[in-house]
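Sequence in, structure out.
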Amino acid sequence: MGLRCLALLVALAGTPAWAAAQSSSSALVVIVKGSTQFHAPTCPVVARAGSNVAVSRRAEALRRGLTAHDCGDAAEAKANPNAVKVFTQKDDNKYHRESCEKLGRERSSLTLDEAGRKLWPCPVCRPPIRQRVQKTPAS
């Protein structure tokens, strides 16, 4: 490597863009075994995979040819846990994860906030539980 290239790398290393690129490539991602995609740790796909997962650095996953999963629901769930979609069926007093074996074909989706106010969580699939929001006193 020439001195000119080395000087350029040293100069780039101090920029915020370089720091962001380095941190994102070294970020940890989750790979579901047998899949061609990698996921954010908070992705619902990871939660459903159970112990059939491996953790890797993002750069390593990309090097292996894996593509990024659109974990947008995970980001939304992190921002507002009660906005997660859960499912129920007619004449059922429970709400379920989408992959629950107790959930029939005739299902409807609703937010966790709605479901948590009037239904019980399924003991089989163990969906998330509605988080109570702390109200701050008016000043």
